[in-house]
Write a structure and sequence with these properties.
With 179 residues, the protein is an alpha+beta fold. Helix content is 30%, strand content 25%. The chain is built from four helices and seven strands. The chain has a seven-stranded mixed β-sheet with strand order 1-2-3-4-5-7-6. Strand 4, helix 3 and strand 5 form a beta-alpha-beta unit. It starts with a strand and ends in a 25-residue tail after the last strand. The relative contact order is 0.17. The model has no long low-confidence stretch (mean pLDDT 96).
Length: 179
């Protein structure tokens, strides 16, 4: 498996992966919602604020993960938000998602990212170093409908710090229906 940093020229294939994967697991409405979210992320997010990583096997897209900047106004640390990620249904439960996230986090760490946060299944993301955090430790940009899914990790080797202020996410993620 090859992990590739970048989405230019692969936008529609990645959008299709997210749409199909989420439709298969959560239903067609969720598939359409997440596919539209990824389309919006690619179209509206400044290049300096987004990283999309793809996993390919024999030239076929089998997984993708998107990280965007999460800015805490009172905190100088470089924080990234993992959202969303998907592995093609036929390739799930083979370690592709974990390898993809781990490789992406290493690339981001090398590029200066200090903290990674996501909003998802704590049991799954714990496998790649994420642990539950409280909103006292790091506020979410919008109210959380699933607070125990707010998880994060330090990428510096230090303990997960408390972040200062109410964060701002990229415009495509500034939607109450996904939080």
């Amino acid at each position: 498996m090859q992990i590739i940093d970048g989405f230019t020229g692969h936008e529609q294939t990645i959008i299709d992966l997210f749409t199909e994967t989420f439709a298969a697991s959560e239903g067609p409405d969720e598939g359409a919602l997440i596919g539209d979210l990824v389309r919006d992320l690619f179209a509206r997010t400044q290049a300096s604020e987004i990283h999309a990583f793809r996993a390919e096997e024999n030239g076929q897209l089998v997984g993708a993960v998107v990280f965007t900047r999460l800015t805490y106004p009172g905190d100088p640390r470089y924080v990234v938000l993992l959202s969303p990620m998907a592995v093609a249904t036929a390739f799930q439960r083979q370690g592709i998602g974990q390898a993809l996230i781990s490789g992406a986090l290493e690339t981001l760490r090398s590029g200066g990212a200090e903290i990674a946060i996501t909003y998802g299944d704590p049991d799954y993301y714990r496998r790649v170093g994420f642990n539950p955090i409280t909103e006292d430790q790091a506020l979410a940009p919008l109210p959380l409908s699933f607070p125990h899914g707010w998880i994060g990790q330090s990428l510096t080797g230090d303990a997960m710090p408390s972040l200062i202020g109410t964060p701002t996410c990229v415009p495509a993620l500034n939607r109450a229906d996904i939080w």
